Amino acid sequence: MDKILLEELKNIPILCVEDEDGIRQIVVETLKYYFDEVYEARSGEEAFEIYEDYKPKIILSDIQMKDGDGIEFVKKVRKEDTNTFIIMLTAYSNEEYLVDLINLNINHFILKPLNLKKLNEVLLKYINLKAKPITLCKDLVLDLQKRELIYKNEETIFLRKREKDFLQILFEKKDSILTYEEIELELWHDKHMTSHALKSFIKDLRHKLPINVIKNVPQEGYTLAKF
């Protein structure tokens, strides 16, 4: 895989769900080549707890597990989350499973055994999906690949990575509130986010924006302004 694409994946958290220890260890070691933040679970119940705590951007899950299948786990995720990129691993090509996967808005499924060629193809799909420009409002477009804002198809504004990530998440949460806790988890990672640091960050970003698309929600967080 291209070095630039590898860099795109490094800071993305991924969760691997597989109940067979030997298989899971092999898959996790493979994923660590692409990702710095790899979580693992041996059951659907454990997977959902990790999902709630760490909110991985990608989930790679087996369908059949001893204490309940992966589809039940994914159903719980999809009740509240349609953005996480979900890949299902299966040893079966049963039509019943395929129908369930389609109905649950699964992004991809891979027949076992997992190999690097298949994994590369799916990860490229993820990157390309996330790289599409985002329209924040009528005259303001966020180019995720170039990390730039384009204003009225004329003016170009360069963004730092954290600024780009913030606007991207704000867009993904446009119908709800991006909370302070989510901002700390998504943008500050393992560092502590002080209220002063967040206020300074938002102030500097607003100063860059030709249109203020960041709406403050007192005591809660921020949301995308509607025009």
TrEMBL record:
It comes from the Bacteria. The modification 4-aspartylphosphate is found at D62. PROSITE patterns: OMPR_PHOB, RESPONSE_REGULATORY. InterPro entries: CheY-like_superfamily, OmpR/PhoB-type_DNA-bd, Sig_transdc_resp-reg_C-effctor, Sig_transdc_resp-reg_receiver, WalR-like, WH-like_DNA-bd_sf. This is Response regulator transcription factor. Residues 132-226 form the OmpR/PhoB-type domain. Keywords: DNA-binding, Phosphoprotein, Transcription, Transcription regulation, Two-component regulatory system. Residues 13-127 form the Response regulatory domain. It holds the Pfam family Trans_reg_C. The keyword Phosphoprotein applies. Residues 132-226 bind DNA. The keyword Ribonucleoprotein does not apply.
